[in-house]
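User: Here's a structure from my thesis project, written as structure tokens. My advisor, Dr. K., wants to see whether a designed sequence matches the one we expressed. Can you design one independently, without my sequence as a hint?
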């Protein structure tokens, strides 16, 4: 039977709440008193019976009025809000251009050479020997070397040389790649970031770590020369990287092209090419 202006819906019932309250009292009686559990069991049984009688053998229904409403989708804003001072400047994609991987490798190798030169000057000026900085680099992986005297650490050892050279080159290239990734983010002040901010930050981290991890090696390092060599690395690496030709990013290209999927119609076809 249909009633105009009304719709048949399941009838509302309080029995589920009664059942839930009874189960709660039954559980609470386990830590309070048995009478609470008995009362809860009675309420839970009554709620279950009442709920079942509401849906069995035939589910109870009731008639609810149908209210006709006209749905209008509109916005209360008449104009598009913009950031103050931006005007009609479009959103900028940053970085627009980046350095190739080869730029970071070149900058890292050049910076590593500058750092090695400054370290050799320090070894001669301090009287510890030209090989002293090299031995300090290896001492990070061998605590026994850090326990030696400055005179012993300043002597040449082939095994230390064969370990220090590839380690220094690897670290220099890795930092150079990091510079190549960071410098496009500050294109106006590349030397400030690479030659001052990054070296000071890295030196501070190293000083704090070695104070707790290897205090003996921390005492062997002249931190003024360490910071100076880091700044020298940063300036040289920053100059070499920033002098390389940058390549445009692919951010504005469609997603299918960036994924390497051939998508005809997204890119204009070359002029004069014969179509099949």
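Assistant: Designed independently from the structure alone:
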């Amino acid at each position: 039977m249909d009633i105009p202006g009304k719709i048949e819906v399941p009838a509302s019932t309080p029995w589920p709440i009664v059942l839930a309250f009874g189960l709660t009292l039954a559980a609470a009686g386990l830590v309070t008193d048995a009478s609470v559990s008995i009362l809860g069991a009675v309420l839970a049984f009554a709620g279950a019976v009442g709920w079942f009688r509401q849906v069995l053998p035939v589910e109870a229904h009731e008639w609810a009025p149908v209210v006709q409403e006209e749905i209008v989708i509109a916005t209360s804003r008449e104009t598009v809000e913009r950031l103050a001072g931006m005007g009609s400047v479009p959103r900028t994609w940053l970085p627009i251009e980046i350095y190739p991987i080869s730029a970071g490798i070149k900058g890292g190798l050049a910076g590593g050479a500058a750092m090695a030169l400054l370290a050799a000057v320090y070894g001669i000026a301090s009287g510890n020997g030209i090989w002293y900085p090299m031995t300090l680099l290896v001492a990070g992986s061998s605590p026994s070397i850090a326990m030696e005297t400055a005179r012993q650490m300043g002597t040449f050892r082939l095994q230390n040389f064969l370990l220090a050279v590839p380690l220094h080159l690897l670290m220099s290239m890795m930092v150079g790649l990091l510079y190549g990734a960071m410098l496009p983010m500050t294109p106006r002040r590349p030397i400030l970031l690479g030659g001052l901010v990054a070296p000071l930050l890295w030196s501070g981290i190293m000083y704090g770590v070695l104070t707790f991890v290897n205090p003996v090696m921390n005492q062997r390092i002249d931190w003024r020369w360490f910071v100076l060599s880091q700044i020298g690395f940063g300036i040289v690496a920053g100059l070499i990287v920033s002098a390389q030709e940058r390549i445009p990013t692919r951010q504005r290209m469609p997603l299918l092209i960036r994924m390497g999927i051939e998508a005809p119609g997204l890119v204009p076809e070359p002029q004069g090419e014969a179509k099949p």
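When you compare it with your expressed construct, this may help: Residues 97-248 form one domain.
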